Amino acid sequence: MIYFDTTPKDDGFRMPGEFEHHLGCWMLWPERCDTWRLGAKPAQYAFTEIAKAIVNFEPLTVCVSAEQFKNARYLLDGRIRVVEISSDDAWMRDVGPTFVVNKNGSVRGVDWDFNAWGGIKEGIYFPWNKDAVVAQKVLEIEGIDSYKAPFVLEGGSIHTDGEGTALTTRECLLNCNRNPDLNENEIEELLKKYLNVERIIWLDKGVFQDETNGHVDNLCCFVKPGEVLLTWTDDKSDPQYEISENARRALLNSVDAKGRKLKIHTIHQPGPLYRTREECFGIDFDTNAAPREQGDRLAASYVNFYIANNGVVVPLFDDEFDEPAIKIFEQLFPGRKIVGILSREILLGGGNIHCITQQQPG
Ligand code: KQY
């Protein structure tokens, strides 16, 4: 695998929208016991369900440690490719490569720096040396050449419309626990080069109490060029109201790279949801991992879904807002099958379906 010393922009490669065609999807396998309760068994079951939903639409590879290989192979649908790649946890969106494509359909990877969502002091766990080389290993397996981006970024902190526009949050990208030496203009310039976009739409904050420092993939995404979906609450006393309203105003006042005003769809959040006493039971304590405590507000959002070829895999929470959410997805994606999966177990680990997947275009 070659690392180019140019950028995707130099070479005419761009990050496509997630709604564009995929060659397949990548996931990791959960096993760390200070993230996932009860030896990660309930999480493994949830990942298995999501993997099965995805492989009905497109090829899927699940990367797993040597220790868990046989167990994962046994549990996962036979159509899924299982390969051995070690990792520190299971967030492929953030540790995997971002794929970029050119006009001829060639694909390259972007390999970002990773610091476990905030580095030694503020990150979620230490060490993260295995996570830091997952992208490179995926690209090696696929024989895809790559760009090494010279700054910290997780895939969950960006969305693109494939037509020159990127969406992100200041809370995450300008956080001093990511790239303390870079200001907003400098980050913009880097995003423009490595995603090959012309316009960045900045939202201030991500979902309330999101442990990623406000990843956009839990808050807002493109459903097609010119249209976004934003998590919402009608409850003005909920801190999420101000965050979503502020984002709505920023989106209203934005135009995309093609000069279009955005059509904004909102989707009511579930809950609010909190970690229960029972859900704290069976999480290993470790001073090198963020504590998970009873009563924690969970950053639950339907926006953390995955768009597959001909399908959409949507997180459900056994909540009164699940059914209206499914109806919204049916309206937004008329040509795709909507599959809802109960995903609270993944939410307990700090993310959701979008965070554990990474599409490979082609
Ligand atoms: O939002 C995401 N893309 C990932 C969430 C990672 C949470 C780590 N516990």
How are the SSEs placed, and which strands pair?
Layout: E1 3-4, H1 8-11, E2 22-28, H2 41-55, E3 60-64, H3 69-75, E4 81-84, H4 92-95, E5 98-101, E6 107-113, H5 119-122, H6 134-142, E7 146-152, E8 159-160, E9 165-169, H7 170-173, H8 184-195, E10 199-203, E11 220-224, E12 227-232, H9 239-252, E13 263-268, H10 277-280, E14 306-308, E15 311-316, H11 322-332, E16 337-342, H12 344-347, E17 358-361
Parallel strand pairs: 1-7, 2-3, 3-4, 6-7, 9-10, 12-13, 15-16
Antiparallel strand pairs: 2-17, 5-6, 8-9, 11-12, 14-15
Bound molecules: 6-aminohexanamide.
Write up what this structure looks like.
The chain is an alpha/beta fold and 362 residues long. It has a single domain (3-361), classed as L-arginine/glycine Amidinotransferase, Chain A (5-stranded Propeller), CATH 3.75.10.10. 25% of the residues lie in helices and 23% in strands. The protein contains 12 helices and 17 strands. It has helices spanning 8-11, 41-55, 69-75, 92-95, 119-122, 134-142, 170-173, 184-195, 239-252, 277-280, 322-332, 344-347; strands at residues 3-4, 22-28, 60-64, 81-84, 98-101, 107-113, 146-152, 159-160, 165-169, 199-203, 220-224, 227-232, 263-268, 306-308, 311-316, 337-342, 358-361. The strands form 5 sheets. It has a 4-stranded mixed beta sheet with strand order 1-7-6-5, sandwiched between helices. It has a 4-stranded mixed beta sheet with strand order 4-3-2-17. The chain has a 3-stranded mixed beta sheet with strand order 8-9-10, with helices on both faces. Strand 12, helix 9 (239-252) and strand 13 form a beta-alpha-beta unit. The longest helix is centred in the N-terminal third of the chain and has 15 residues, at 41-55. The protein is globular and about 50 Å long. 48% of the residues are buried. The model has no long low-confidence stretch (mean pLDDT 97). The structure holds 6-aminohexanamide. 6-aminohexanamide (KQY) is lined by residues 91, 93-94, 124, 156, 211-212, 215, 217-218, 349-351, 355.
